[in-house]
Specification:
Number of helices: 13
Number of strands: 14
Distance between the termini: 22 Å
Helix content: 25-40%
Structural class: alpha/beta
Largest sheet: 8 strands, mixed
Order of helices and strands: EHEHEHEHEHEHEHHHEHEEEEEHHHE
Strand order of the largest sheet: 13-12-11-7-10-9-8-14
Strand content: 15-25%
């Protein structure tokens, strides 16, 4: 039986606890929060053995095998380091760490102690994302990716906006990338998965939308455009927006022969074939082909729904379960460490650039060449 602990008992901890209890062969032996009332409320709502107000007590008394860290990002590094030093495998919610230096340190410590480590890029493990990955691995693109486009929109909403903009001491404001630091991980990770080089050119531009300026917010950037170039091979565009409508979460990947279009909101995937039809057939056959693909997506989603495995956190469950299998069965970690480090490094370069842009600057792009530190071997 795998013994699991959770550190940080806010909203995201509910999702972790809910999915952990659905996985066979594990139990939540303790939860911890610096505010004991937060730990207690989680303990009372889920099948959890004990709750703590101190991390040291959780580690020494509950003795978990694996710890889920769901605290604000500023504490991820220190909490994860202590857990690894005490012999626990660690699942860290996104963002993994504040910067690449911390990320490399945790990966090195995990390898040194022969422990496993992962981060909460659970959107990469939704049903449709896994189907896309299988097609890419089978060679559907016809070769290595040529270009990728990742779109990530986020509706701030009235409640979220009031909590953030009304509190000058909000923890998000203290992140190196502020709001973007807490939100863009999924969109960047989708690109990082298919990059193969450690030497990248990253060009970023961020700005405060007119909507936020209209309510007096001049510090929080909520619009971001990024170009990523990989040694004159693969290129990628990343767009984050709180203002685009419709609000989308999409990922497109193009190879030398075919492409794939992933829609995470609608859980659909389209296969984009390069084959052309003669004359006016080009105007009639492709719409029929796409209609059949949409119908196939409907059937697949319906089957998942009837199997009671079609919910917003299905990807989280798959990621957690895969991570646990890597611990108990010695299989590879579900997210290679190189992808985690590359995602963190790209984010570092983005925040360096948008942090140096003056608030009144207008689309003056700056390039920044970056190379990853020496590759860390996989566990």
């Amino acid at each position: 039986m795998l013994r699991v602990g959770i550190v940080g008992c806010g909203k995201i901890a509910d999702a972790h606890a809910s999915q952990i209890q659905r996985i066979k062969g594990c139990e939540i032996v303790g939860v911890c929060d610096r505010e004991p009332l937060m730990a207690r409320q989680l303990y009372e709502r889920f099948p959890i053995k004990r709750y703590f107000g101190d991390l040291e007590e959780l580690l020494s008394d509950a003795r978990p095998d694996v710890v889920h860290i769901t605290t604000p990002p500023q504490s991820h590094f220190e909490v994860a380091r202590l857990c690894l030093e005490r012999g626990c495998h660690v699942y860290v919610e996104k963002p993994f760490t504040l910067d690449a230096r911390q990320a490399n340190s945790l990966v090195a410590l995990a390898n040194e102690n022969q422990l496993k480590l992962t981060t909460g890029h659970d959107e990469q493990f939704s049903h449709v994302a896994r189907r896309m990955r299988q097609l890419v691995r089978r060679g559907y693109l016809g070769g290595p990716p040529v270009h990728m486009e990742s779109y990530l929109c986020y509706d701030l909403g009235q409640t979220y906006a009031q909590a953030l903009f009304g509190d000058p001491q909000h923890w998000i404001r203290r992140l190196p990338g502020k709001l973007l630091h807490n939100l863009i991980n999924h969109g960047i990770a989708r690109i990082a998965e298919y990059l193969t080089s450690d030497s990248l050119e990253v060009i970023a531009y961020g700005f405060v939308s007119s909507r936020l300026r209209g309510v007096g917010e001049n510090e929080i950037l909520d619009e971001l455009r990024v170009i990523i170039c990989e040694e004159e091979r693969t290129t990628a565009y990343f767009t984050f927006s709180s203002q685009m409508r419709p609000s989308i979460r999409e990922f497109a990947i193009y190879g030398p022969q075919n492409g794939l279009l992933l829609d995470l909101d609608h859980e659909t995937m389209l296969q984009l074939r390069c084959a052309r039809y003669k004359s006016y057939l080009e105007k009639f056959i492709p719409p029929v082909v796409f209609a059949r693909q949409h119908l196939a997506n409907l059937v697949v989603n319906a089957r998942s729904f009837l199997a009671r495995d079609f919910h917003a956190t299905a990807g989280m469950r798959y990621l957690i379960e895969s991570f646990y299998h890597s611990i108990t069965d010695g299989t590879p970690v579900p997210i290679p460490y190189r992808e985690i480090l590359l995602t963190t490094t790209i984010m570092d370069r983005i925040f360096e650039q948008i942090g140096s842009q003056r608030p009144q600057s207008r689309c003056s792009f700056e390039g920044h060449s970056t190379g990853l530190p020496n590759p860390t071997p996989r566990v």
